[in-house]
Amino acid sequence: MVRIDWTSGLLQPSKEVHESVKKLGQLEGIFENAAALKALDPRTAVYRVQAWCPVPEGTEGGLFWGTTVVEPGRVDSEYFMTHGHFHLKRDRTECYATVEGEGALILMNETRTTWMEPMSPGSVHLVPPHVAHRVANTGSNALRFVACWPSDAGHDYESIRKHGFGARVVCVDGKATLVRSAV
Ligand code: M6P
Ligand code: ZN
Predict the structure, then answer these.
(1) Taking the domains of the chain in order of start, what are their residue ranges?
(2) How far is 133 from 20, CA to CA, in rounded Å?
(3) 18 ligand 1 Cβ < 6 A
(4) Which position has the higher pLDDT, 122 or 1?
């Protein structure tokens, strides 16, 4: 058993809870404007993930639970966001629920059609099968959300690193806007 603090979404540390931090320096090639990224401190934390993995990764029939905190910020006009992934087992789904902050869940199917769902406290989202997903913080405070996914889903980062998403969420006149990526 683990415990969650619902006000922050944070899990109480335990040996089953894995914690990781993603910094700007590790997100090269993810944001569109490479020069703008280079001008920022690579040690800047973009998001932190806590993952409760009560069964070994790859176990069929199990679930993982995670909390992600995405910091506010931008690289040029593009909001701070998670790396994003397809599941290695493409038909595996996932649920997200927003605890605090404002954001966008960016979804892309295998034909690269990309859309977004606004995230705000209390919003619950389903990532359908065969759909890549990433989250951008479109607000000015931390964005906190919880997630639940099958323990045999796996993460395929490679295809996102290579091809990205079909669209990006950028700030246009102060508003989060989905803009189709240059091909
Ligand atoms: C959510 C879940 C995790 C994921 C994390 C960060 O908590 O979807 O599986 O690891 O977000 O996203 P990414 O793996 O794309 O960096
Ligand atoms: Zn996932």
Answers:
(1) 4-180
(2) 18
(3) no
(4) 122
